């Protein structure tokens, strides 16, 4: 698969088989992530791989409770509230692996650096025939002292990109994309 095919084929996957992802594949995905550019080549990213489903279930429950406490009113939050209130909804979609990309310490460009690493990881996973999804519902909780403690993360680490990885149950439906809005100057 070439890069254009990976970019076109990569979609957020929210249904996974129970098939494990081989450790060597996970290491390859992380290797691809570390090839991302970073500000001043600081490479601040650190990776935490979670395959313990009981722990992922616990983090899901705690992250949902954290989000429900802090949702601002609005149409979007009403939709999220219904989803987060559902005891059967697991924010990691029962994927076999969560790869959390964190920065070693707060800094000016760590979010951007980790996001670039996450994109590399997700494209590499697509090329391996795997599905991925960035789980925004986990971010706020994982940045709390309780969230960091649940994963035994150093308090100085900044969790940025919680990416689930696994074998998709089905091929994700294509997503319609809007045409880009381009302003040309000169």
Describe the 3D structure.
This protein is an alpha+beta fold. The chain has a domain at 3-56 and 91-166: NADH Oxidase. The protein is built from seven helices and four strands, in the order ααβααβαβααβ. The chain has helices spanning 3-9, 23-33, 53-70, 75-85, 110-127, 136-142, 145-150; strands at residues 45-50, 97-103, 131-134, 158-166. It has a four-stranded antiparallel β-sheet with strand order 1-2-4-3. The longest helix has 18 residues, at 53-70. It is globular, with a radius of gyration of 17 Å. The chain starts with a helix and ends in a 20-residue tail after the last strand. The mean pLDDT is 93. Pfam families: Nitroreductase. Residues 7-167 form the Nitroreductase domain. This is Nitroreductase. GO terms for molecular function: oxidoreductase activity. InterPro entries: Nitroreductase (IPR029479), Nitroreductase-like (IPR000415), Nitroreductase/BluB (IPR050627).
Report the biggest beta sheet as strand number plus sense, adding barrel if it closes: 4 strands, antiparallel
Overall 3D shape: globular
Q: Oligomer, anyone?
A: single chain
Helix run count: 7
Query: Which ranges are low-confidence, i.e. pLDDT below 50, for 5 or more consecutive residues?
Result: none
Q: Could you tell me the mean pLDDT?
A: 93
CATH architecture of the domain at 3-56 and 91-166: 3-Layer(aba) Sandwich
Percent of residues in helices: 40-55%
Strand content: 5-15%
What's the CATH C level of the domain at 3-56 and 91-166? Alpha Beta
**Order of helices and strands, N to C?**
HHEHHEHEHHE
CATH topology of the domain at 3-56 and 91-166: NADH Oxidase
Output the strand order for the largest sheet.
1-2-4-3
**Number of DSSP strands?**
4
CATH H-level name of the domain at 3-56 and 91-166... which superfamily?
NADH Oxidase
Rg over CA atoms = 17 Å
End-to-end span in angstroms? 36 Å
Category by helix and strand content = alpha+beta
């Amino acid at each position: 698969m070439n890069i254009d095919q990976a970019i076109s084929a990569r979609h957020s996957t929210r249904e996974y088989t129970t098939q494990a992802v081989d450790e060597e594949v996970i290491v390859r995905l992380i290797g691809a992530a570390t090839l991302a550019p970073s500000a001043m080549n600081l490479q601040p990213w650190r990776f935490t791989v979670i395959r313990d489903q009981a722990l992922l279930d616990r983090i899901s429950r705690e992250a949902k409770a954290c989000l429900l406490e802090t949702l601002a009113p609005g149409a979007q939050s009403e939709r999220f509230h219904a989803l987060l209130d559902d005891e059967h909804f697991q924010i990691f979609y029962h994927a076999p692996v969560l790869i959390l990309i964190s920065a070693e310490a707060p800094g000016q460009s760590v979010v951007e650096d980790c996001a670039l690493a996450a994109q590399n990881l997700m494209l590499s996973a697509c090329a391996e025939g795997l599905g991925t999804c960035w789980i925004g519902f986990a971010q706020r909780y994982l940045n709390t002292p309780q969230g960091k403690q649940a994963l035994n993360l150093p308090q100085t680490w900044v969790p940025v990109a919680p990416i689930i990885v696994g074998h998709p149950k089905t091929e994700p439906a294509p997503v319609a994309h809007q045409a880009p809005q381009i302003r040309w100057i000169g």
